[in-house]
Amino acid sequence: MIDLGISKMALIGAVALIVIGPEKLPRVARTVGTLLGKAQRYVADVKAEVNRSMDLDELKKMKETMEGAARDVHQSIQTNASDFEKQWAEDGSTALTTPDDAYVHYPEYKLPKKRWRVKQGATPQWYKARAGVRTKALSGAARVARYRPQKIN
């Protein structure tokens, strides 16, 4: 890349001051600054896109290795299962069959309480009353009537 030191920057500034003039120099400097900013953003976007594509390639490779490992495990399970089935058929054993009494019996379904839609809060009502927590919703008109200042006679 171009090596720009302080001395070279000062030389470029002096030449620009002489060539462009002191009246137009601030406008030109702003334009150059915005163009440099746009170029830097473009370069950063390109770098980010390249990094994303590299990460995507790495993820694809990792996915392929994981799929291969899963395939190997599946094949080993299949071979072991077939060996087990062969041994089971040779033994002729029926040790795994059990009578109906061995099954778990679940309790019969009960209807919920009558007010099951009403949410039961964990905070007791006496605490809410003491702390001043509103337990009932007020309409707009009721709220205005409640908080309206009283007339003094």
From TrEMBL:
It is found in: Cell membrane; Membrane. InterPro entries: TatA/B/E, TatB. It is a single-pass membrane protein. The keyword Chloroplast does not apply. Gene3D superfamilies: 1.20.5.3310. It comes from the Bacteria. Keywords: Cell inner membrane, Cell membrane, Membrane, Protein transport, Translocation, Transmembrane, Transmembrane helix, Transport. The keyword Iron-sulfur does not apply. It holds the Pfam family TatA_B_E. Its main location: membrane. Belongs to the TatB family. Part of the twin-arginine translocation (Tat) system that transports large folded proteins containing a characteristic twin-arginine motif in their signal peptide across membranes. Together with TatC, TatB is part of a receptor directly interacting with Tat signal peptides. TatB may form an oligomeric binding site that transiently accommodates folded Tat precursor proteins before their translocation. The Tat system comprises two distinct complexes: a TatABC complex, containing multiple copies of TatA, TatB and TatC subunits, and a separate TatA complex, containing only TatA subunits. Substrates initially bind to the TatABC complex, which probably triggers association of the separate TatA complex to form the active translocon. HAMAP family: TatB. This is Sec-independent protein translocase protein TatB. It comes from Rhodoferax ferrireducens.
